[in-house]
Design goal:
By secondary structure, the protein is an alpha/beta fold. The chain has helices at residues 18-31, 48-55, 77-96, 107-112, 118-127, 143-148, and strands at residues 8-13, 36-41, 59-64, 101-105, 133-137, 151-155. The protein is globular, with a radius of gyration of 16 Å.
Length: 174
């Protein structure tokens, strides 16, 4: 199934649910016969969605990052290299046109940390094949990205159990 016109969506904001919203969309798209590819930036850990992807032929997830926090003021060279590689890979996937829904998970954070260039991401958005739906997730979406996108949702953090001392939970947070 190919979309006639794929759009650009952004899930941003401080509330929980950005990555999982994109995975919910993936679930819906796969049900309609679409092929989904997610590139996760700044991540390198066994999230539940990676295990799901092993079971679904139309869902691919790859990670480009280290399993630790990146220092925003002074990122390691390897953090920049991995993010660059991730974006190059994402470009190949988007331009290839085989995948109908491409999710760039945490790309907004990679941009905010200056691991990848805004021009490169804007270029990818502008040059994508018409049928590809592109989703960009992560806090601090750049205003140029927001401007160019067709759909922008900001998750609002009203309550999170983290502040009550509840630690991250397997299956819910990762
Ligand atoms: P999820 O992956 O659960 O959809 P997210 O993509 O919206 O969350 P991120 O900013 O990518 O959120 O952060 C991921 C991790 O931080 C998750 O473990 C999530 O539960 C946690 N988290 C998200 N929002 C908050 C918040 N407002 N307070 C505390 N922890 C949060
Ligand atoms: Mg996320």
């Amino acid at each position: 199934m190919k979309l006639e016109k794929g759009l650009v969506q952004v899930y941003t904001g401080n509330g929980k649910g950005k990555t999982t919203a994109s995975l919910g969309l993936a679930l819906r798209a796969i049900g309609r016969g679409m092929k989904v590819y997610m590139v996760q930036f700044m991540k390198n850990a066994k999230y539940g969605e990676l295990l799901t992807a092993e079971k679904l032929s139309n869902l691919k997830i790859v990670q480009y990052g280290r399993d630790c926090f990146v220092n925003k003021e002074k990122p390691e060279k390897i953090d920049v290299e991995l993010a660059h590689k991730g974006l190059k890979h994402a470009e190949q996937i988007v331009m290839g046109g085989e995948y109908d829904l491409v999710i760039l998970d945490e790309i907004n954070v990679a941009l905010d940390f200056k691991l990848v260039s805004l021009e490169d991401v804007l270029g990818l958005i502008k040059n994508k094949p018409a049928h590809v739906e592109l989703v960009l997730t992560g806090r601090y979406a750049d205003k140029k990205i927001v401007e160019i996108a067709d759909l922008v949702t900001e998750m609002l953090d009203i309550k999170h159990p983290f502040r009550e001392g509840v630690r991250i939970r397997e299956g819910i947070d990762y």
